[in-house]
Specification:
The chain is of the alpha/beta class. Helices cover 21% and strands 27% of the residues. The chain contains 8 helices and 23 strands. The longest helix has 13 residues, at 207-219. The chain is globular.
Length: 368
């Protein structure tokens, strides 16, 4: 068995888009890329996406690209086993890794590695784990000056069992104590954290504090991105403030009770009229993004969103080794809002605004 302490893991379940795009689309993407930065040319219906490392030679990014994140940052203990144990079993791990985790910590680390100015709002204890988390974040360039550190208690940590047989991971999380409350952050600290920010990210951990940050961000017209992993306390309130939502594969249908992921994404945009786009991540299969369009020149037509997505998948080139983007033609779809109960097995999506469906396929894993 090997024991390794490694740099913070970049979660494939998180996608950070620091700046709103000028066009609004419905997208589907498939990505195995973690430590890479990519851009896309929306003018083409099928095109490669250039990926580059944050360490590659390029023009420097403006200093005002500030991302503020509020949420969890933890220590992960990842034990890999040949097969998940049965109750009362005693087994051995094949490897153990100790690394930074937590959705907010991962997202802000990713943003910092891509060259953005990252500020993290969270709470830790003054223990060995907490000090290690701060050291690792600062080594990646994350601004930790807005972290709250309690003299007593414990920093959050997670035991993760990685099952090599079924390719699953099981998380056993121990929350930090004492928990963060809004009074932990002074008004001056909040104002300082949001000064010059271009986007606010929340993973819905520390939801009471996140709601205070979201309210001030909305007052300042700062866009808000919510990472919706699962139903949590405070999630619905935060979603009402969200301009962008990124969620796990199970969340859209669990939250909307829609019969399919594509129809669930449409439903989310109907329920949350402030959303500019919503993304669902699919692990090795990438992600689907539904993005609202502002083009009022399109003519209405009825579209089955599930069929549209399948047609785009058929256009993927499985032999491609570079990220590729495939877009549908824009269309306007009418929605009868009172009939969007999503109970029919073959629900035809009808929405009030234009959408564009697009596929991004990463055929190979790219590392920085």
């Amino acid at each position: 068995m090997s024991i390794t302490t490694v740099p913070r893991h970049l979660s494939s379940s998180s996608f950070l888009s620091p700046f709103p795009s000028s066009s609004l689309n419905f997208s589907y993407s498939i990505s195995k890329c973690r430590d890479c930065n990519f851009s896309k040319n929306m003018s083409s219906s099928s095109h490669p996406i250039q990926a580059s490392s944050s360490t590659s030679s390029s023009l420097p990014l403006p200093q005002d690209r500030i991302v503020v994140g509020v949420g969890g940052t933890v220590v992960d203990y990842l034990a890999t086993v040949d097969a998940f144990p049965n109750p009362d079993d005693k087994i051995r791990s094949t490897s153990l890794k100790v690394q930074g985790g937590g959705n907010a910590g991962n997202a802000l680390t990713c943003a910092a590695r891509l060259g953005l100015n990252s500020r993290l709002i969270s709470k830790l204890a003054n223990d060995a784990q907490g000090r290690g988390i701060v050291e690792e974040l600062e080594a990646d360039g994350v601004d930790t000056s807005h972290l709250v550190v309690s003299k007593d208690g414990n920093s959050p940590f997670t035991y993760i069992i990685v099952d090599n047989q079924r390719k699953t991971r099981t998380c056993i999380h121990t929350p930090g104590y004492p928990p963060m409350v809004p009074d932990d952050m002074t008004q001056s600290s909040l104002m300082s954290a949001l000064d010059g920010a271009r986007i606010v990210y929340s993973d819905v951990r520390l939801h009471e504090t996140a709601l205070v940050v979201a309210q001030e961000a909305r007052r300042r017209n700062i866009p808000i991105l919510v990472d919706a992993e699962k139903k949590r306390d405070g999630l619905d309130e935060l979603l009402n403030f969200a301009d962008y939502v990124v969620c796990t594969a199970k969340f859209p249908q669990a939250w909307t009770e829609a019969p399919s992921i594509p129809s669930a994404l449409v439903s989310m945009l109907l329920i949350l009229p402030n959303l500019k786009f919503v993304i669902v991540t699919l692990g090795d299969d990438g992600c689907i993004m539904l993005e609202r369009s502002l083009d009022g020149s399109l003519q209405p037509e009825e579209v089955d969103v599930d069929s549209s997505l399948q047609l785009l998948k058929q256009r993927l080139d499985g032999s491609s080794t570079i990220p590729t983007c495939i877009s549908s033609k824009p269309s306007v779809q009418e929605c009868h809002l009172r009939k969007c109960c999503l109970l029919h097995p073959k629900w035809r999506v009808q929405v009030v605004e234009p959408w564009e469906l697009e596929l991004v396929f990463h055929g190979a894993q790219i590392h920085a």
